[in-house]
Amino acid sequence: MSPLSSGLLGDLDPTSDRAVFRQIADQLREAIDRGRFREGEKLPSEADLVEHFGVSRMTVRNAFSILQGEGLVHAEHGRGVFVRPRPPVRRLASDRFARRHREQGKSAFIVEADAAGSHPQVDSLEVKEEKASHDISTRLGSVRRVLARRRRYLLDGKPVEFATSYLPLDIARGTPIAEPNPGPGGIYARLEELGHHLDHFEEEIRARMPSPAEVKTLRLAAGVPVIHLVRTAFDTEGRAVEVCDTVMAADAYVLSYQLPAT
Amino acid sequence: MSPLSSGLLGDLDPTSDRAVFRQIADQLREAIDRGRFREGEKLPSEADLVEHFGVSRMTVRNAFSILQGEGLVHAEHGRGVFVRPRPPVRRLASDRFARRHREQGKSAFIVEADAAGSHPQVDSLEVKEEKASHDISTRLGSVRRVLARRRRYLLDGKPVEFATSYLPLDIARGTPIAEPNPGPGGIYARLEELGHHLDHFEEEIRARMPSPAEVKTLRLAAGVPVIHLVRTAFDTEGRAVEVCDTVMAADAYVLSYQLPAT
DNA sequence: CACGCCAACTCGTATAGACGAGTGGTCGAG
DNA sequence: CTCGACCACTCGTCTATACGAGTTGGCGTG
């Protein structure tokens, strides 16, 4: 019924070396970039494009699958293909673990999200002792077993981050850190109370495509990478007292670091 | 000719809700994860899998396209589909701009790569004056025109990073900074000589899928995201004196930051 | 008016076939 | 032995068709 008003999209170049489905993807991409289709707006249906370009449906679908892989569009079964809206991003500043942010009763995530006017949630909380993976064991200095604290963070119902903290048992066992709710200021406040004065953190950042499990827990759209952040906390004696492994939906975050020019 | 030795892959579950091409992708993914196919090793050909599973070729190709999107495999025309080898990663430490690393004659990238035993290259060097984009102008404090220094970095022939430095004209024009080779210690050393003593840097990190142009310049495989890093350098008077916009192949980098626990 | 059903439209999955093009090995001519 | 032609195998592109399943809106019935 929507015969695809001419003008929005051009014609194919039969003399071009470029594959037809790539040419179609190029045209759609350009139209999106130029704002001819706005965020959240519905693109022409597969049938429309089949008719407009005079190609078979698989060719159109190939074009769409390119754009999906680029994270530009997403398809909804029974509804159409839409320009993917960019979710509001959460900025993580490098001073987010400064002591002055640790004085309040609520967790940093909740406080910060409330301030930004979003509705924060934390779920899949799980606290248990388990065998340390090789990587975690290495980072914590050859411990065999660890306390693992897992949780998922959501903003306005959308999962944005899944994190696991690992702590050596000799530090965490029998302390509030092993409780589901470790109390005001979080586990870093508890660590300091227990005499492990924090000296510095080390963060390692990678980006990659998500595993199927990560797609599921973070409800990721096609074409959205994850940021994998591994933070190690060191006390004043140089001992690694915690490793926090975080997987974030890359479209929801900007990380920000302040570096001295020394 | 290679009838796909049984045992490597199982059968489909016709009763499952999961689409056939997803089941095939799942089996291949698991076989790769378990090390049944090693890095760089060739997977069964499309024809092999068509025969093994008794499905049509498009179904097999759909399965492969999932794995490509995950960055697990890559196809080579005329050769086969291979498990994607993980390239050696370059670690970027947060002290990489410390003054003590600035004393040598060669650029930091070259020095560091040589030390790691790789063969570094820098190309597409371009230095010119241009109009500042809105974003760059904002970051540099409302300048209209800027000096832009573009270059691409390669390791062992593989492009890994594409970077552009932007500097206000009143700082850079007519100085060694506007020369293709700014001399020992790079532009940061020159800035300090010109009286702009560096105080700190601010880095913003995002991850996303690459644009087609980025795929081309970085020769990215399917399923490889980019890390987008924007660094702003501030002098001791609080003025932003440089913005460096960097796009990195995410499979080639680990960023590492050291944060004080303050 | 309210509700449910249905039809039309959407994307998802799968089949079967065709031709093109890049790669690598074999084999025969020189 | 060397080189080129050829062929088998590989993935790339494209067509045509079919049916399934989620969504939406309208229409008819109660």
Give an account of the 3D structure.
The structure is a homodimer of 262-residue chains. Chain A is α+β, with helices and mostly antiparallel strands. Chain A has two domains: 20-83, Winged helix-like DNA-binding domain superfamily/Winged helix DNA-binding domain (Arc Repressor Mutant, subunit A, Orthogonal Bundle); 90-256, Chorismate lyase, CATH 3.40.1410.10. Chain A is built from eight helices and ten strands. Chain A has helices at 20-33, 46-53, 57-69, 108-115, 134-140, 169-172, 186-193, 212-217; strands spanning 73-76, 80-83, 90-93, 120-131, 145-155, 158-168, 198-208, 226-235, 240-249, 253-260. A six-stranded antiparallel β-sheet of chain A has the order 4-5-6-9-8-7. A two-stranded antiparallel sheet of chain A has the order 1-2. In chain A, strands 3-10 form a two-stranded parallel ribbon. In chain A, a hairpin with a 2-residue loop joins strand 5 (145-155) and strand 6. In chain A, helix 1 (20-33) packs across helix 3 and helix 2 (46-53) crosses helix 3 (57-69). The longest helix of chain A has 14 residues, at 20-33. Chain A is elongated and about 70 Å long. Chain A starts with 19 loop residues before the first helix and ends with a strand. Chains A and B meet through helix 3, strand 7, strand 8 and strand 10 of A and helix 3, strand 7, strand 8 and strand 10 of B. Strand 7 (198-208) of chain A pairs antiparallel with strand 10 of chain B. The structure holds a DNA duplex (30 and 30 nucleotides). Chains A, B: Residues 18-86 form the HTH gntR-type domain. Chains A, B: Pfam families: GntR, UTRA. Chains A, B: One of its GO terms (biological process) is negative regulation of DNA-templated transcription.
